[in-house]
Design a protein that fits this description.
Elements: E1 2-6, E2 9-13, H1 21-28, E3 47-55, E4 62-70, E5 83-85, H2 97-104, H3 114-127, H4 133-138, H5 151-163, H6 173-179, H7 190-201, E6 215-217, H8 223-231, E7 236-238, E8 248-251, E9 254-258, H9 263-267, H10 270-275, H11 279-283, H12 289-292, H13 297-303, H14 309-316, E10 320-324, E11 329-333, H15 334-337, E12 338-340, E13 343-344, E14 351-358, E15 364-371, E16 382-391, E17 394-403, E18 410-411, H16 413-419, H17 426-439, H18 450-468
Parallel strand pairs: 1-5, 6-7
Antiparallel strand pairs: 1-2, 3-4, 3-5, 8-9, 9-14, 10-11, 10-14, 12-13, 15-16, 16-17, 17-18
Helix pairs in contact: 2-5, 16-17, 17-18
The structure holds flavin-adenine dinucleotide (FAD) and FE2/S2 (inorganic) cluster (2 copies).
C-alpha cells in the first residue's frame, strides 16, 4: 500500500511500487496538466514538486523540504509518505503571479511545456531563501520549449523575481509565498499532515534483504530510461529513501559518501565544496536540476557507463567502493570494480553502500573536465579528472581518470607510473600524453570518431595542467 498526499488530497493505492508516478497522475487520477513528452528525463514536461520531511542543515531538525523531479522516471513507491504537487495543485481561482508573468511576457504558445516550466519556477521559490533573476532562469534548465523560444520565459522569471518582495524575516518565507499566491493556502497544513502520515507509516517501511527483489532502484534516472516497462509489475527494491545510505561525512582521514546521496546533495555539501572549491561548477555539468535531485552516487557507479561523471571524479580520487550483501561487507578499489563493459565486481545479492576516499593532502590539486556536444544537459563525449600531489616541483602522487575512451570508466595506471617521482615540466607532460593515449581503446560512435576521442582526452589532460599549474606550464603550446 502506497500512501501520500497529492496536491491537497490523501492518496492510498495498491498500485505497484515500480509503476511510474507520471502514469499514476495521468491515467489513475486523470490529472492531465502534467504532460508526457520524452519519457527520458530530457524535456521536463512531466515535472512535479516533491515535498518530504527531512533533517537538513546544522540543526538537524526535521522539516518539510521541497524539490522538483521528473515524474516520468519516478517509481510510485518512492512517493510513500511524501507530498506530490502537480500543476493542478498550484492553481487557484486566479492565475498565480508566475502563471500571470508567463502570459504577460509571452512565455507560452501551444502550452504543452508550460506546466513543467511553472512547476520548476515555483519549486525555485519554495526551495530558496534569496531570489536572483539568473538563478530563477537556471531553475528551469530541465525544461524544453519547442515553440515559444526562451526570451518570454526568461522575462517572466525576471519579472516574478523583481516583483517578489521577500521582507526581512526569513522564517516567514513559506507564509509569504502563500500571501503572494505563489503557492495556495493548503500548503500551510502539509507539514503537519505529513508528520501524522509518517508516524503511521514508520513501521511499514523497511528493507528486508537484498536478494529477494528482481530490480534494485535508487534514483531511477538510468533504469527507468532503459527498462521502465519491465519495472512496472516486477518486485522492486527501492533504496533511495534508506537514510542509512544517505550521508557525506569525514572520519578517520577519509571522506565517505553514502550510495543514495544525490548529485544535488553533493553539490550543496559544504564539506566537499571546502575540499574542492570548484565542485559546484563541475556538478552543474551533470544533467538538469530535476535529474540531479534524483540521480545518486551508487546508481552512477553501478550503471557503469564509461562516461559516468561521478564515477570519473571518484576514480581520480582513488576511491574505494563499500559493498554489502546485508550480512557481510567488503571493499574494492573503484579502479578494480569494472571488469568489462557493464561487468562489475558485484554479486547479485550485493549492493553498494558507500564510496570513500582519502582527504586531499594540503599539497594536492584536483581538476575535472568534460566535453560534450552541448555544454550543459548532455552526457560527455570524453571526460577526465586528475588529482595530483607535488613536493616542490616533484610529482609524489597522481591519479587520472578517462571516460569515453574504453569499454569501462578508465583509471590511467600506466600514466600514473610514468609521472611518479618526475619533476613537472612541459617535456614530462607531453611524454605522459603519449603514454596515456597508448592506454586507451576508444571506438567511433554517435559521440565522435575514435581519433577525435583520443584527441579530446589528450587536450583534457593538458587542460588539467594548464588549469592547475599555470605557473609551470604558462607557455605550453597546444599542438
Ligand atoms: C536526462 C538525463 C541526463 C543525465 N545526465 C547525466 C550526466 O550529465 N552525467 C552522468 O554521469 N549521468 C547522467 N545521467 C545518467 C544518470 O542520471 C546517472 O547515471 C545517475 O547517477 C544514476 O543514478 P540513479 O540513482 O538514478 O540510478 P538508478 O537508475 O536507480 O540505477 C542505475 C543502476 O544501478 C543499480 N544501482 C543503483 N544504486 C545501486 C546501489 N547502491 N547498489 C547496487 N546497485 C545499484 C540499479 O539496479 C541500476 O541497475 C543522466 C540521465 C538522464 C535521464
Ligand atoms: S516526459 Fe520528458 S522529462 Fe519526463
Ligand atoms: S509553448 Fe509550445 S512547447 Fe513550449
Amino acid at each position: 500500500m502506497i500512501q501520500f498526499i497529492l496536491n491537497d488530497k490523501d492518496i492510498c493505492t495498491t498500485a505497484s511500487q515500480g509503476s511510474v508516478l507520471l502514469d499514476f497522475i495521468r491515467n489513475e487520477l486523470h490529472l492531465t496538466g502534467t504532460k508526457e513528452g520524452c519519457r527520458e528525463g530530457d524535456c521536463g514536461a512531466c515535472t512535479v514538486l516533491l515535498g518530504e520531511i527531512k533533517s537538513e542543515g546544522p540543526s538537524g531538525s526535521e522539516e518539510l523540504h521541497y524539490n522538483y523531479i521528473n515524474s516520468c522516471l519516478m517509481p510510485l513507491g518512492d512517493v510513500h509518505g511524501k507530498h506530490v504537487v502537480t500543476i493542478e495543485g498550484l492553481n487557484s481561482e486566479e492565475l498565480t503571479p508566475i502563471q500571470k508573468a508567463f502570459v504577460d511576457e509571452g512565455g507560452t504558445q501551444c502550452g504543452f511545456c508550460t506546466p513543467g516550466f511553472i512547476v520548476s519556477l515555483t519549486g525555485y521559490f519554495l526551495i530558496n531563501q534569496n531570489y536572483k533573476a539568473l538563478e530563477a532562469i537556471d531553475s528551469m534548465n530541465g525544461n524544453i520549449c519547442r515553440c515559444t523560444g526562451y526570451s518570454g520565459i526568461k522575462r517572466a522569471a525576471e519579472k516574478v523575481v523583481s516583483n517578489f518582495n521577500l521582507g526581512e524575516n526569513e522564517a516567514l518565507i513559506f507564509d509569504r509565498l502563500i500571501e503572494s499566491q505563489i503557492i495556495p493556502d493548503y500548503f500551510k497544513g502539509i507539514e503537519n499532515r505529513l508528520n501524522e502520515l509518517n508516524k503511521k507509516l514508520k513501521t511499514q517501511v523497511s528493507i528486508d534483504g537484498y536478494d529477494q527483489y528482481e530490480f534494485l532502484i535508487s534514483g531511477g534516472t538510468d533504469i527507468y530510461v532503459q527498462k521502465w516497462e519491465s519495472l512496472i509489475n516486477s518486485p522492486v527494491n527501492l533504496i533511495s529513501n534508506e537514510k542509512k545510505f544517505s550521508f557525506i561525512e569525514e572520519a578517520d582521514g577519509e571522506i565517505r559518501v553514502g550510495s543514495t546521496t544525490t548529485i544535488s546533495e553533493l553539490e550543496n555539501s559544504s564539506l566537499l565544496n571546502n575540499y574542492f572549491p570548484e565542485f559546484q561548477k563541475y556538478l552543474k555539468l551533470f544533467g538538469s536540476i530535476p535529474i540531479r535531485n534524483r540521480a545518486t552516487v551508487g546508481g552512477n557507479i553501478v550503471n557503469a557507463s564509461p562516461i559516468g561523471d561521478m564515477t570519473n571524479i571518484f576514480l581520480a580520487l582513488d576511491s574505494r567502493v563499500h559493498i554489502s550483501d546485508g550480512k557481510s561487507k567488503r571493499q574494492v578499489q573503484l579502479k578494480n570494480f569494472f571488469k568489462g563493459y557493464k561487468t562489475l565486481d558485484l554479486r547479485e545479492n550485493e549492493l553498494v553502500e558507500a564510496v570513500s576516499f582519502s582527504i586531499p593532502k594540503p599539497n594536492s590539486r584536483f581538476n575535472y573536465e568534460k566535453v560534450s556536444k552541448r555544454t550543459f544537459l548532455d552526457i560527455a563525449s570524453v571526460n577526465s579528472s586528475m588529482y595530483i600531489e607535488l613536493n616542490e616541483k616533484q610529482i609524489i602522487e597522481v591519479h587520472i581518470s578517462a571516460g569515453g575512451v574504453a569499454p569501462i570508466p578508465l583509471y590511467l595506471s600506466r600514466t600514473r607510473e610514468y609521472f611518479l617521482g618526475k619533476t613537472i615540466s612541459e617535456d614530462i607532460i607531453f611524454s605522459a600524453l603519449e603514454v596515456s593515449l597508448d592506454e586507451i581503446s576508444p571506438i567511433s560512435d554517435a559521440r565522435g570518431t575514435a581519433e577525435y576521442k583520443s584527441l579530446l582526452l589528450r587536450q583534457l589532460i593538458l587542460a588539467h595542467f594548464i588549469k592547475l599549474f599555470p605557473e609551470y606550464v604558462n607557455d605550453l603550446v597546444i599542438t
